Amino acid sequence: MSRSHKQEMKDQEYEMLLHIETSEVQHVYEATSHYHRYEPTSYGGLHLLLTHYEWGRIPGRLVDFGCGKGRVSFYWHYMLQRDAIGIERQPRFFQEAQHNLKQYEQNFPDAKGKLTFIEDDATRYPIDETDTIFYFFHPFSLPIFMKVIENILQSLETFPRRIVLILYYAHEDYHFFLQQQTMFQVEQVIEIPSLYENNSYEAFTIYSL
């Protein structure tokens, strides 16, 4: 059995556990020059992310930009029992995230933390003072990323707090911008075993400020 098939089986087990469906990859023609296709982060990768960093040190809410059907938000909420919000501009995926949320809440009515999805452009999302952890799976082009980071930094002027960015499969221009034009510093890199060796994008880079 190939590694991809084993991972698929594992992902399906998580989907059954959470009572959601997030596996379908978006077709390329649905993507644009500024907004990239939907592809969910593997559950194996999310497990590494949650177990290789002390998230308890960072209070506040997770924001997943370009959340698609909500996999990251659901996993975060279920595993850590903490607030999460997903931002998705594509109506189809937002509707599927909402459907997943209904199924999830029916099966976990006593879960702690609030889980929410918003249909909107990432640049228009008003950063809340409780938003402290921001997840990016290369969801859009550099100009949009820069505008989102600008919004985050502006929120810090009003509500000073510790901020963490999680970049997965991020291209060099994202890293160059953060390291050369902002005060964010790389705090940790979590490589995905057996994938990173052949593809340096297969890693979570955690920036903090």
Please give the radius of gyration in angstroms. Answer: 16 Å
How do the helices and strands follow one another from N- to C-terminus?
A: HHEHEHEEHEHEE
CATH architecture: 3-Layer(aba) Sandwich
- Cα(first) to Cα(last) distance is 43 Å
Question: What top-tier CATH class fits best?
Answer: Alpha Beta
Helix/strand/pairing category: alpha/beta
Biggest β-sheet strands, sense, barrel: 7 strands, mixed
Round the mean pLDDT to the nearest integer and report it: 90
CATH superfamily: Vaccinia Virus protein VP39
Question: How many domains in all?
Answer: 1
Q: What is the fold-level CATH name, i.e. the topology?
A: Rossmann fold
Tell me how many strands there are: 7
As laid out across the biggest beta sheet, the strand order is 3-2-1-4-5-7-6
Stretches where pLDDT is under 50 for at least 5 consecutive residues are 1-6, 27-34
Task: Give the strand content.
Answer: 15-25%
Provide a count of the helices. 6
Helix content: 25-40%
- Principal-axes geometry comes out as globular
Keywords: Methyltransferase, Transferase
Protein name: Methyltransferase
InterPro entries: Methyltransf_25 (IPR041698), SAM-dependent_MTases_sf (IPR029063)
Pfam families: Methyltransf_25
Describe, in plain words, how this protein is organized in 3D:
Mean pLDDT is 90; it is low at 1-6 and 27-34. 38% of the residues lie in helices and 19% in strands. The protein has helices at residues 3-18, 43-51, 71-80, 91-107, 142-158, 172-181, and strands at residues 61-65, 84-88, 115-119, 131-136, 164-168, 185-191, 203-208. The radius of gyration is 16 Å and the shape is globular. It has 209 residues and is of the alpha/beta class. A seven-stranded mixed sheet has the order 3-2-1-4-5-7-6. It has six helices and seven strands. The chain has a single domain, classed as 3-Layer(aba) Sandwich (Rossmann fold), CATH 3.40.50.150. Helix 4 (91-107) links the parallel strand 2 and strand 3. This is Methyltransferase. Keywords: Methyltransferase, Transferase. Residues 63-156 form the Methyltransferase domain.
